[in-house]
């Protein structure tokens, strides 16, 4: 029998500025008669150990914090082989991981209600395997190149600002010095080789605080959506804001594929390799292999994708206008998209 929920909480999420939000979460869970026990992390990767141990002890597990904490909890629970249910309350930096399974990032009370409602379903997960054969599961995006370098800088810097602001600041710091390198991307049925700023392997659609780098990715199709970008740094920076409204792609300098398996490696051995990251956690230098695991784990999540509803509230009009603009140009890029806005003028 399962025990209470184990609430695994990072007290220094967003530089420790979110205690009030955490207290709101606890009060809401109390009002909803959710029984839980709190486990606080006190060092890097401690959440992996706590999640592994509490899941083994029979708890269902809730990760409370930013994407770093959520990814650690995800890996601890899955590697426990306990089949414990897994959920999230988004408090901290990024919050793209809860969003991948439909939890909106702006409503802590609603996230608590989802836990109390207890609806569960399986979602796809990704598995990364680095050159040392270290394995890391993820829900959102695995990437290498420019964005992974930004992630590294963000993780190493003092997170004195909100998650998205901190990420954007490090984009600006990185863009001037970053140089494209030649890579090889091996997919299920084809290969791509050439210069690239970055390669994003999307199980979910967003990273970096809701940037839609893999805009049509979702956790219910059993496939990665891969975006390979070859754009000069300044034009990439110029188009940066359009990624938040899902209007950056299609783009002639973005090569898109779908595949269950992906291998990314450097072409030239004498060039410093790109680093990789998944869900905001650095996983090492290329080469890196990715495997898409269909219905890989069971999560506590809303019946409908409420993160997509949040996107429509925030960017729906702009996105609908963009889709109609594409159609007028003869592009059917979003016609097969499962979350088309209702106000499209077709």
Task: Give the SSE map.
Layout: E1 5-9, H1 19-31, E2 36-40, H2 46-56, E3 60-65, H3 67-78, E4 86-90, H4 96-100, H5 108-117, E5 120-129, E6 135-138, E7 141-145, H6 146-156, H7 163-175, E8 181-186, E9 191-196, E10 198-202, E11 206-207, E12 211-212, E13 224-229, H8 233-238, E14 254-259, E15 261-266, E16 275-278, E17 281-285, E18 288-300, H9 306-328
Parallel strand pairs: 1-2, 1-3, 3-4
Antiparallel strand pairs: 5-6, 5-18, 7-10, 7-16, 8-9, 8-15, 10-13, 11-12, 13-14, 15-18, 16-17
Descriptive keywords:
29% strand, six-stranded antiparallel beta sheet, 30% helix, Rossmann fold, 9 helices, 2 domains, alpha+beta, Tumour Suppressor Smad4, 346 residues
Task: Give a description of the structure.
This protein has helices at residues 19-31, 46-56, 67-78, 96-100, 108-117, 146-156, 163-175, 233-238, 306-328, and strands at residues 5-9, 36-40, 60-65, 86-90, 120-129, 135-138, 141-145, 181-186, 191-196, 198-202, 206-207, 211-212, 224-229, 254-259, 261-266, 275-278, 281-285, 288-300. With 346 residues, the protein is an alpha+beta fold. It folds into two domains: 5-118, Probable inorganic polyphosphate/atp-NAD kinase, domain 1 (Rossmann fold); 129-295, Tumour Suppressor Smad4 (Sandwich). The strands form four sheets. Strands 6-5-18-15-8-9 form a six-stranded antiparallel sheet, with helices on one face. A hairpin with a 2-residue loop joins strand 16 and strand 17. The mean pLDDT is 91.
